[in-house]
Amino acid sequence: MAALRTARTSVAEKKTFKFNILSAVVMGICASGQAYAETESTNNNKKEEIPVIVVIGEKTARTIYDTSSSVQVFDQETIDNTPGATEIGDLLQLIPNIVDSGQGNSMPTVRGIDGSGPSIGGLASFAGTSPRLNMSIDGRSLTYSEIAFGPRSLWDMQQVEVYLGPQSYIQGRNASAGAIVMKTNDPTHHFESAVKAGIGERNYSQTAAMLSAPIIQDELAFRLSFDQQKRDSFVDLASYEPAGDAKKIEMNSVRGKLLYEPSALVGFKTTLAIAHMDSRGPQSESINIVGTEAFRPVYETKSLSTAWDLSWQLNEALTFENNLVYSKFAYDRYTNPTPRQKGDFTTDGKEFHVEPLLRYLSLDGRVNALVGARYYKSSQDDEYIDATSTNPMSGSTKTQSAFAELTYALTQSIDVTVAGRYEKERVKRKVSDPRFKLDHDDTLSVFLPKFDIAFKPNMGQTIGFKVAKGYNAGGAGLAFNSIQFAGFSPYQFEEEYIWNYEIYTRHRISNSVELMTNTFYNDFDNMQMTQTLSNGDVLITNLYKAKTYGAEIGTRWYATDSLDLFANLGLLETEYKEASGDSKELPRAPSMTGNLGAAYSFFDGFELSANAVYTGDYYSDRSNTASTKIDAYWVANAQLAYVFENGRATLFATNLFDSDKTTLYTSSNLNDQLKQQPRMIGASLQLNF
User: Fold this and answer.
1) Class of the 21-688 domain?
2) pLDDT tens column, 458-495
3) Start and end of every TonB-dependent receptor plug domain (predicted)?
C-alpha cells in the first residue's frame, strides 16, 4: 500500500524572508491558485526518488519490499504533510479497508472486522474483553478504553505503522484484526528543541514542546516531550455534575526518555522511558435527532508507564534485546446521577510484561532469524455503580509465549520464511455479588504458525504468498437486558480463530513510481460477536463461520520534482452465517474504500497538500437491517504550509466541504447517529531550535 511522500524541508540555506509568518501564509493563500501554472520551482533539496521505507513493527527492521504484511507507514515528515494530522485517527482515514466512524464506543473496523473486539461500551467493561486491533506506543499495548475514548497524540513521533490483517503470530494477544505500532523519537546526542501552538474552530487548541540534549557527550542523553490538545464537541451536550462540561474533549501526553550508549561497551544501547497519558471526553459524539438534551456519559482515562529497552550486539551475528514495561491505568465513567440514568463505572489496573529476544544474521546474509519469549500479567478492579448499589468486579490475565522466525534465502531471488508462536493464556473474571454467580477461570493454549515465500526477480520487485493463523481469547461477563431494569445474568464465550491467506506484490516500477498490492482471504472459526437474544439479553456469542476477502492496492508517483501523487484502493467482501443459515454481511464493511492525494511545492518554502477519502455504503448492524444502511460518503482535507529555516507554519482545513453524512446508527431506533465531524479550519506554528 502506498504511503504519503515525506515532506521536504525545502528552504535555501542562509535565506530569510523580510515579512513575518502570518504575511507568508496570507500571501500563500492568494498565490496558491496560480501556483500550478509555475513552470519552475525555486525549492532546494528536492527529492526525485521515492525513498525506501523501512518497517520495524514486526520486530525485525526490513524494507517495504521485504515485508509481506499489508502495511502503511507514516514517518515524522509524512505526518507533518498530512492536513491537520495531530492524532492517530487523522492517519487511519488514509488507509483503505479501514472504517473509523467517529468518537464513540466502536474502534475502527479493519477489513470488516471490528477492532473493538466482540463487544463495546458497557458490555466490554462487564466482560473484561480485549480489542482485536492492537495499538502500541513504544512497546506498550493500550487497553480498549484508552483507544476508544482517548485520542492518541502524534507529537514527537518517529514513525507510525498500521498493519491490516492478523498479527497474532508476532504481536501475540489482541492483534487478530491488525496492529498499530507507534514509535516515539529517542534522545539525541546533539541539542534540539521545538515548540508548537495550534488553534482552530470549536475552541481547538494544541500546545506542545520537546527538548533533547546530551548529558555525557556521545554516551548519555535525555528527551522530554509534552502535548496538550483540546476541543469542544460539535454535539450539543448538557453539563452536569460530577462530569462537568460534557462537550469538553482533552488529551495530555508527557514523556521523558534517557538514552545510554557507553563508549566502553561497543554495541550496547539502552533506553528508559516514563510516559503519562490522560484524556477526557463524551463516551460518544452521536447526535440524537429527537433533539432531547443529552446528558452524555463522560469517560476519563489515565495511565502511567515505565519502559526499559535494551539492545546489545554480542558479535557480528548475534544481538540480544529486551523490552520491559510496567504500567498503571485507571478509567472513570461519569453519568447523570438521576436514578433512571446513573450507571457509573470505575477501573483501576496494572500491567507488566517482559520480552527478551535474540537475533541472528549469518555473515553471508542468507539466514535471518529471531527467537524470543514474552511474559504478560495484568489485573484490574472494577465497580459498576447505579442508583441503588455498588457492584465490584475483578479480572486478571496471565500470558506466557515463545516465538521464533526464520528467513532463509533459497536462491538469490527466492526467500522462505517460517514462524511460529506458542501462547498460553489464563483469564479470570469474577463478580463479587453472589447474585450474579460469575466466577470464570479458564486457560487456553494455542499455536500460531506462519509460512511465507517471496520471489524477487529484480531489485525492488517482489511477488509472494503467505499464510498465518490468528486468534482472540474467550472470556465471560454479565449480560444486561435490553428491557430496562431487568437485571444482569452471567455468560461465557469461547475463543475465535482466523486463518489468513495473502498474495502480495511490491513493484518499484522506476525511481519515481511505486505500486503495492495485497490480496487476502480470511477464514474465521467461532467468531465472537455481540447478539441480542429473544428474551432481551445482550451478550457475546460465537458464530460458527465467517469469511472476508478482498485487496489493498496503493501507488505513489513523483510526477515532477515539485508534485507528489498517491492513491489507495480497498476492495472487500464479507459474509457470516446466522443460526438460521442465512448469510449476512459484517457491519461497517464497505465493498470499496479509497483515497487519493497530492503534495505540491512552489515558490521557496511553500507546500500545498490535499487528500480526498471515499467510503462505500455499509450496514450499521449485524442483522443488515435496511434502515441502518449507511450511504457512501466522501471527505476532503487540505493544508498550506510555509517551511522556513527554523520552523513551519500551516493553515489547514479538515472536511473541507463540510460534509455531514451519517457514519453509523448507534441504536436500532435510528434516533442516535454518528456523523462526520464538521469542517474545521485552523492554523499552527512550530519553531525548532
Assistant:
1) mainly beta
2) 989 999 999 999 999 888 887 777 665 556 778 888 88
3) 64-179
